[in-house]
């Protein structure tokens, strides 16, 4: 919707008048009245979004991405779809698993997933892991996953505070996975998570994070994190950036990391 609104600026006022006449001619008055309401309201919504984004940047307020709001939103979410409502297609999800998850997560290792939600990525992660731990800010997510994966002896789930990884031992994790989670976590909390990554990672451990890149400017209730700030906070803690990308090629198909210029960053804790 935001992209469609922004595209309006590419049509002159005279061009819009000609389009309006053609729309009226081809669709009739009733449809055009409804279209007018949509057009005006979407423009108002765009202006409101721009004001909210400006105010958040100027004052440092959290927007929709505070710890308390994230917990409340995901506690109230209907997880009956298992998080698949965010997968554009089966082909896209299969490509994420093949080209990112299976490529970057070493087999037969100790895997930590932050924000499993309804278990959208948990099946391939458990298949990949010798031991799997899922930590989520939402107790309802943990309940869903415990029921869904009750027959998996190597998997465990726990409620996390959202700013730490209590219960995960020092130097215990070989691989970290988190998708559609850090897009909603503001930078001050991401920094605390990164401190915890340093604590729980074994030397040589790898992390795969899906996160925003433009500080929420594209919508999608994204957090204030940017691509540069994410890379910097990881580097400041001694992590090595392996790769960071907005899209990847799978055969003849090009897939996007997300709808709002999201990024997937792969990073490692160097061996001593």
The N- and C-terminal alpha carbons lie at a distance of: 48 Å
Total helical elements:
9
Mean pLDDT: 93
Judging from the principal axes of the Cα atoms, what is the shape? elongated
Order of helices and strands: HHHHHEHEHEEHEHEEEE
Strand order of the largest sheet: 3-2-1-4-5-9-6
Strand content: 15-25%
**CATH architecture grouping of the largest domain:** 3-Layer(aba) Sandwich
Tell me the total number of β-strands: 9
- Spans of at least 5 consecutive residues whose pLDDT stays below 50 are none
> Could you give me the name of the CATH homologous superfamily of the largest domain?
Vaccinia Virus protein VP39
And the CATH topology of the largest domain? Rossmann fold
Specify the biggest β-sheet.
7 strands, mixed
The radius of gyration is 21 Å
Give the CATH level 1 class of the largest domain: Alpha Beta
Structural class: alpha/beta
Indicate the percent of residues in helices. Answer: 40-55%
Number of domains: 2
């Amino acid at each position: 919707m935001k992209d469609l609104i922004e595209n309006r600026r590419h049509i002159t006022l005279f061009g819009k008048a000609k389009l309006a006449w053609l729309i009226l001619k081809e669709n009739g008055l009733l449809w055009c009245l409804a279209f007018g309401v949509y057009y005006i309201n979407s423009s108002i919504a765009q202006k409101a979004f721009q004001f909210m984004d400006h105010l958040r940047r100027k004052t440092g307020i959290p927007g929709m991405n505070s710890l308390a709001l994230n917990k409340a939103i995901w506690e109230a979410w209907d997880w009956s779809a298992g998080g698949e409502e965010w997968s554009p297609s089966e082909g896209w999800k299969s490509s994420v698993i093949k080209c990112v998850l299976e490529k970057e997560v070493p087999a037969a290792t100790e895997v930590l997933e932050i924000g499993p939600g309804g278990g959208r990525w948990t099946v391939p992660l458990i298949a990949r892991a010798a031991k799997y731990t899922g930590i989520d800010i939402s107790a309802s997510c943990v309940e869903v996953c415990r029921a869904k994966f009750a027959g998996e002896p190597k998997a465990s789930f726990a409620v996390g505070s959202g700013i730490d990884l209590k219960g995960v031992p020092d130097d215990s994790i070989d691989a970290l996975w988190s998708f559609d989670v850090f897009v909603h976590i503001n930078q001050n909390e991401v920094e605390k998570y990164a401190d915890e990554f340093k604590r729980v990672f074994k030397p040589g451990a790898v992390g795969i994070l899906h996160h925003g890149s433009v500080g929420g400017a594209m919508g999608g209730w994204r957090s204030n994190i940017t691509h540069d700030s994410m890379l910097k906070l990881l580097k400041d803690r001694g992590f090595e950036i392996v790769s960071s990308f907005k899209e990847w090629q799978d055969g003849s198909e090009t897939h996007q990391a997300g709808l709002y210029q999201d990024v997937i960053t792969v990073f490692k804790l160097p061996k001593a």
